[in-house]
Amino acid sequence: MTTHHLDTDLLHIGSAPFDPVTGTAPVSLPSMRTSTVRFENLEALESAFAKRMAGERAITYGRSGMDTHRALEQVFMQLEGGTYCVLAPSGMAAINIAFLGLLKTGDHVLVADCVYGPVRNLDRALLQGLGISVTYFAAGHDDVAALIQPNTKVIYVESPGSLLFEMLDMTTLAATAKDNNLILVTDNTWGSGYIYRPLALGADVSVVAGTKYVAGHSDVMLGAVIVKDEKLAARIHSAQYAMGNALSADDAWLALRGVKTMAVRMPQHARNAIEVCKFFDTRKEVARIFHPAWHKDAGHALWQRDCTGSNGMLSIELNCSPVAAKKFVNALTLFGIGFSWGGFESLVQWVDPGALTSHAYWTGDGHALIRLHIGLESTLDLIADLAQALDNIHA
Ligand SMILES: Cc1ncc(COP(=O)(O)O)c(C=O)c1O
Asked: Residue 284 sits in a domain of what CATH number?
């Protein structure tokens, strides 16, 4: 058991081992690309397969990855406080592994209405066809226990929510799941294990789009599913193996490289986001700020209870129509218009009002919602850019 701080471990996981002949090593593990794994002899092969059959991590074929992948799995386990991790080629692939690994025909799943939008597409495109039914609920509003059916197997949530960053009470959800013998799965891309650790709060499965803060440079697609329980690990592993998801070694390597600066990137994103919140608070065009670390956010007390930090994600409700808000978005010069987040750069997303209709937390009917990722640029420049773009709404 390590006694080091997480920041220390993140720097040391994935150090290259010394060459036994020369006694030298590069600092970082190289990208170990392979499709085929060679075994020194049949005994080595048999031992690897026996390990795999026993549910242990064993290198047998390129699809399950070699040392570069293993180091990245360790990173996720360390971040999330889990004992088992499977990697996936995107966050959405990781979500699929969790759903399809834990649910079968005839099962029912409760899904929070604030989850990443494409989960609803997964429901329409795959779950319905497989005979897996979904009920969406408003966390913190609906009585979750009352929605449980005899065939409910999983509660799937995301905290904070994807568009409005509402904090969910993970401890209460975990208690409901436990009392009813359900598996609580959460998308922890926002926290990425660094500022929020749902497994420690009672969640059973954490799904992370490493595409965002873990890789951190907007150049990698990556997902991970992390669990603590051995039996759940076997089900997740079996689904991942069956689905044939494989992450490229180069992407694993880039993520390992990205994670080395997570301890400096995350607090800086968080500081910059608070500076931007302070600015928005002075502007009449901004009706509401959604950012749990902001002291006026409705979820601030839960954030204080459950999180150890924050990040660069925030949304604003503008006192104007969604159409008028397009002027604001188009006037920004430092914020790229794009859907992603978690990289070093600032981004803006004009949220389609249709995406909010099934979202109980949203009370700004007729108003625009703009989601921002506050990057690592100087906040002086970012705020000047936001100010001129807000002025532009009425221009
Ligand atoms: C909260 C959340 N979960 C999952 C995903 C999916 O990740 P990926 O784009 O790597 O498939 C995203 C992507 O934006 C996300 O925001």
From this structure: 3.90.1150.10
Calpha distance 347→339 (Å, rounded): 8
54 token code pair: 């026993």
Regarding the beta carbon of 277 and ligand 1, being less than 6 Å apart is answered no
**Residue nearest to ligand 1 atom 9, measured at CA:** 91
The answer on pLDDT for 55 being more than 80 is no
Per-residue pLDDT tens digits for 231-252: 999 999 999 999 999 999 999 9
What residues are paired with 152 via a beta bridge?
A: 108
User: Is there a catalytic annotation at residue 116?
Assistant: yes
Q: Is residue 1 part of a domain?
A: no
Answer yes or no: is the C-beta of 251 below 6 A from any ligand 1 atom: no
Give the confidence band of 2 by pLDDT, cuts at 50, 70, 90: low
Among the three residues 232, 259, 286, which one is the final residue of a domain in this structure?
A: 259
Average pLDDT over residues 163-169: 98
Residues 282, 220, single domain; the answer is no
pTM for this structure? 0.97
Q: State how many domains the chain has.
A: 2
CB 206 within 8 A of CB 212: no
CB neighbour list of residue 341: distance below 8 Å, 6 or more residues apart: 212, 312, 313, 347, 373
Do 250 and 284 fall within a single domain?
A: no
Give the three-state DSSP class for 310.
coil
CA 250 / ligand 1 centre spacing (Å): 20
Provide the residue range defining the domain that includes 58: 6-259
In a shared domain, residues 66 and 180: yes
What does pLDDT average to over the chain? 96
Main-chain dihedrals φ then ψ at residue 156, nearest 5 degrees: -115, 125
Residue 107 lies in a domain: yes
How far is residue 166's CA from residue 315's CA, in Å, rounded to a whole number? 11
Q: Can you tell me the distance from the alpha carbon of 210 to that of 192, in angstroms, rounded to the nearest whole number?
A: 7
For residue 148, the model assigns a pLDDT of: 98
Find out whether the beta carbon of 315 lies less than 6 Å from any atom of ligand 1. no
Q: Is residue 204 part of a domain?
A: yes
Catalytic entry in 84, 107, 153, 187: 187
Check residue 52 and give its pLDDT: 83
